[in-house]
User: What shape does this take?
Amino acid sequence: MNEPLVTVIITTYKRPDKIERAIDSVINQTYPNIELIVVDDNIKDTQERKETEKIVERYSNIRYIKNEKNLGGALSRNVGIKEANGEFISFLDDDDKYKPTKIEEEYKCYLEHKDEKCRTYLLVVCVV
Assistant: This one.
């Protein structure tokens, strides 16, 4: 069975010292089919933008989007959603991390409850 694509969107602002941990926690997921999008909300030409760019450039499997101006967390997530290709979307803050089985466990939970008449609440919340 082919697992559907899950897009993980990490928004970042003024925390280049935290972003690598967040990215690594997504890359190290046990779920096999993940698209990772990092939306950089730092202002152009700031030290935070430069440091974040250097960190993200080390990874070949990340879609990196730089906001032209600071939009805030909610609008930056919307930027990521517009670029997402996944059937499911999951959000991660730049100063947090996922446990290695997070997405796999949530997808299994979704499969177990998807036919229920009530809406199942999962952290993978968006079915696109």
The chain has four helices and five strands.
